[in-house]
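User: Predict structure, ligand fe (ii) ion.
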Amino acid sequence: MARTADHLSPDQQLREASTRLGRRRFLTVTSAAAALAFTTNLPDAQAADAELAPRSLTENPFTLGVASGDPLPDAVVLWTRLAPRPYEPGNGLPPTGTVRVGWEIARDERFRKVVRRGTARAHAEFNYSVHVDVDDLDADRVYWYRFTVGSWSSPTGRTRTAPARGRKLDEVRLGLVSCQAYEDGYFTAYRHLANENLDAVFHVGDYIYEYGIDAVGGDRKYTDRTLPALYNHETTTLEDYRLRYSLYKTDPDLQAAHAAFPWYVTWDDHEVENNYAAGIPEKGQSPEAFVARRAAAYRAYWENMPLRMPKPDGTDLKLYRRVHYGQLAQFDILDTRQYRSDQANGDGWQYPTPESADPARTLTGATQERWLLDGFRRSSAVWNVLPQQVVFSQRKNTTNPTSKLSMDAWDGYPAARERLLTGVERAGVKNLVILTGDVHVAYALDVKRDFNDPASRTVGVEFVGTSISSDGDGEERPSNWSTLLAANPHMKFYDGRRGYTTLTLDRRHARADYRTVSHITTPGGTISTSGSFVSEAGHPGIQQA
Ligand SMILES: [Fe+2]
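Assistant: Predicted complex:
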């Protein structure tokens, strides 16, 4: 039976478009096709608008917790998503319709001093997610928030607005997290993070991993539950990605960390597929299928994150953004995945070649690069902080004069790195702090004007945070520990265990504390500090705290 595109799911529409059109034609119309898929996949407006009676929700819809994000001095985004049955396709809600969701935000945890309240509509079209951008709030203030549907109440979240732009702040405390592979262990690090005293958290990517997860949750080795078989394959469709977020979001430690602080999130590769570059897949997919997959992944990401950014536009989702945090800091949150040139030399660890050195290569895309360098020029902040994905500093893996480098990191895009460093220099940025994830280990590095010349100027510092969970418990000194430190004199610290990083900024110092969990493959890991380093304002460089 013939059906019009309007009656197909976004996945089906994109797949259908890719089979009907030749490859080149498809790539040129893909954006339009995806835009269509994202806006008109509703059978008809009336059915779409049909509001579900709250009493029809007979099971708790707040299984995924709450989150807040992208705080500004007067506003913050509050998030939740309704999912009475988080591990079932559709999450136990009808494929069309809306639910009216109440929200309130208060100055106290008991909601005696509610300052704003309202209702929002959760749409089936966006998997019943809710993004409320609450404004008219006071700057630099803690608030509590919660949602209601009928007689159901969500857990309470705590959040905090950003300080007023010109304000002289004494101190700001931030968290840095990345890389949480559900099947590789428990999110114990988040349980500890939730107990820190932080103003906000940066997540710099790999919020989900796309690989299949078995019935016992991989290394979690569940004995008290069985995960449905639908998790045991790599995510490729919108439904796959949505269900993957549902699984992650039911984790109590992750929920606790979201409920404790507002997050500024950005993605890396695994939110779509390992080491993809812009529209180019890592492996085994046609470009057409990959663009459809990426669009689905981006959409599910938007649905599940406390983002102020508008919903995906066609196949793209603009994620890079700037936040002014008082006079103390400017955060330029980057997206080094969506617009990058393909990895040179076939990806992986390779010797540099003319291909990798090609000045036309970009990691941010030209538009984001211009925006970044322009932001450096206008900045009057004490600290210019770049939360971003892949390691910025050079990392040789031998002490030989030439060494293989990671083609997926800034080492694979040396001309783009050089343009950024030139921009920093020309703008007179004194205090550059780069925050990084991706590599599942912790490093502290001096950012050198010329990484091949240890005597060259140190222009900033890079704090690389380790993973929340990945491939086992890790070890303090991985097998390449001494080689890496010897091969890269600008590397001052390297620890291979799991955890998170806290960053404290004041007018004189940027301080990183590397917080390490004892183990992740069983619950109950303890937390300790494996290293503490500072960089002085006006005198960049890693020093022992
Ligand atoms: Fe990762």
